[in-house]
Amino acid sequence: MNKIIAKKRLSADAYEITVEAPLIASSRKAGQFLIVQLDTEFGERIPLTIADADDGAGTVTMVFQAVGATTLKLAALNEGDYVANILGPLGNPTHIEHFGRVVCVGGGIGVAPLFPIIQAMKKAGNHVTAIIGARTKELIIFEDRIRRYTDELIIVTDDGSAGRKALVTGPLKELCSRDPKPAMSVAIGPPVMMKFCASTTKEFVVPIMVSLNTIMIDGTGMCGCCRVTVGGETRFVCVDGPEFDGHKVDFDNMMKRMNTYKEREERDKHRCSLFLLKSRPPV
Fold it and tell me: How many domains does the chain have?
């Protein structure tokens, strides 16, 4: 059981929770993730990337979007409540070294797991430029935290309500056109965003790492649900990733697989929403 120490609503459906998990806090590294289960007997297991950790306090921070049954239930918990099971840290850490110039691109909720990577890249002595994007100003998260660890921060929104009115690939292309161009790039966000970041950097022969968040159950490579095609070969996100060479990922195949349970997910989300609505105390 892991106690929720703090909870914060970041946007309409995005939440940040900090839980007690001292062993995970002391051993986690940038890029790793957790498997979270709310109900020990029948609860769904969902992967959530570690957005931050405090070794001294023994806590880890997760950011998630309430878009499914389990994340809706998680969003309904408050400070003092408990999360039944948290397994981690899982996955391979981000490869961090002194590359020189690094550009980190985050879209929507993907900005949160990008944060520890930015911290680690900066600590390694890199010149770090971050591009963070969202549909509107209200959906921009982690701006102040990321600004503290970057040499340059570029904000873009679809409607122009914050920063530039552009997609993240716009400033990414500009940075790749510079001399010197980035020696490494990292992208985390919706699959379609990562796909086009990969195609943009490929044009300029700039390496890119992408962090994949596929369907996942056990997180140990046994179920096979998280399999993706990378460089023409089958890989498992939970044990071989979650980060891969973005120029080699078959994003179209991955996006198709991620829609496998879409109908059931929508049905369960609707049932969960009705249950939570009925269970709220009268005003």
Answer: 2
Residues facing 132 on adjacent strands: 106, 155
Give the chain's end-to-end CA distance (angstroms, integer). Answer: 30
Q: Would you say 188 and 130 are in contact if contact means Cβ atoms under 8 Å apart?
A: no
pLDDT score of 283 more than 60: no
Closest CA to 246 of 254, 146, 141: 254
Is 219 inside a domain boundary? no
61 and 107: one domain?
no
Amino acid at 106: G
Dihedral angle at the C-alpha atoms of 211, 63, 193, 144, nearest 10 degrees? Answer: -110
Question: Model-level pTM?
Answer: 0.90
DSSP 3-state assignment of 33? strand
Q: Are 107 and 188 found together in one domain? A: yes
29 and 63 share one domain: yes
User: For the segment 94-107, what is each residue's pLDDT rounded down to a tens digit?
Assistant: 999 999 999 999 99
Range of the domain at 55: 2-90
Question: Is residue 45 domain-resident?
Answer: yes
CB 129 within 8 A of CB 175: yes
| 234/224 Cα distance (integer angstroms) | 10
Q: What is the pLDDT of residues 180-229, one digit of tens each?
A: 999 999 999 999 999 999 999 999 999 999 999 888 888 888 888 889 99
The Cα 87–Cα 47 span in angstroms is 9
